[in-house]
Design a protein that fits this description.
Layout: E1 14-19, E2 24-27, E3 30-32, H1 39-50, E4 54-59, E5 71-74, H2 78-89, E6 98-101, E7 108-110, E8 129-131, H3 135-142, E9 149-156, H4 160-173, E10 178-183, E11 192-199, E12 202-210, H5 211-226
Parallel strand pairs: 1-4, 1-6, 4-5, 6-9, 9-10
Antiparallel strand pairs: 2-3, 7-8, 10-11, 11-12
Helix pairs in contact: 1-5
Bound molecules: cytidine-5'-triphosphate (CTP) and calcium ion.
Length: 227
């Protein structure tokens, strides 16, 4: 059980957390999405707020209650999330001390969105998809110096060595401080998670933790870097 009263070691720190999936509309009734439920990001937002941080949670469509003391911004698509992050963090990222990207941002969106419902036909349907921007990499490239602290998440289907190798690649490609990597089967929809935190300094396998405990471990690392 979590203590009701704990350290307020994140007081004065502005944390932006993204959570959930993004969904990419095909027409007014259909979308492309993924299996993210938002639990990890909501757990981080809750723990960060309990520890005294000022928290903004940018969330895709999920069915979770907003944690106490957290400012929530709801978005739908990756492009919506990009716009929300710009608004919340400021053009020069000046309004955030840390960005924790747990969101499962859709890598592609339909090239065309139909304003009306697409009608069924007997013919095969080919969808053209275009790449979405990499929101975390954009912030990584725009950041000057050590702020905001940047944390990425990566869900993979590789073995432990492969997961770590992918995480290391993402750490470099996105210019971030930390990648929290895990296996799809250990993560989606669960209350716990088995994650590895990868930084330039090394990798730490954390074993199975509740999402709230994992949140605290990640926030400990963020707090260190914000000092
Ligand atoms: N991410 C992002 N924008 C995207 C895709 C991913 O900001 N368009 C962020 C995610 O929120 C996450 C991190 O990048 O924090 C890693 O996401 P992941 O999907 O694992 O990485 P990708 O670079 O999309 O690689 P993959 O081909 O494995 O999907
Ligand atoms: Ca991806």
């Amino acid at each position: 059980a979590r203590a009701a009263i704990g350290p307020r070691d994140l007081a004065g720190i502005r944390v932006v957390v993204t959570a959930g999936p993004t969904v990419e509309d095909l027409d007014p009734v259909r979308f492309l999405g993924n299996r993210s439920t938002g639990k990890m990001g909501f757990a981080i937002a809750e723990r960060a707020a309990s520890r005294g941080a000022s928290v903004t949670l940018v969330s895709g469509p999920v069915s979770l209650a907003t944690p106490r003391g957290v400012t929530r911004v709801d978005v739908r698509s990756a492009l919506d999330m990009q716009a929300a992050l710009r608004e919340v963090m400021g053009a020069d990222l000046e309004h955030a001390d840390a960005l924790i990207m747990t969101a499962a941002v859709a890598d592609y969106r339909p090239a065309e969105q139909s304003a009306t419902k697409r009608k069924r036909s007997a013919e095969p349907l080919r969808l053209e998809l275009v790449p979405n921007p990499d929101l975390l990499a954009e912030v990584g490239a725009a950041r000057k110096g050590a702020r905001p602290v940047l944390v990425g998440f990566a869900v993979e289907t590789a073995d432990d060595a492969g997961i770590e190798a992918y995480a290391r690649r993402k750490l470099a490609a996105k210019c971030v401080d930390m990648v929290v990597a895990n296996h799809a089967k250990d993560s989606f929809g669960r209350e716990d998670n088995r994650a590895t935190i990868v930084t330039a300094g090394g990798a730490e396998a954390l074993g199975v933790l509740s999402k709230h405990s994992l949140a605290d471990r990640i926030l400990d690392r963020v707090a260190e870097r914000c000092r």
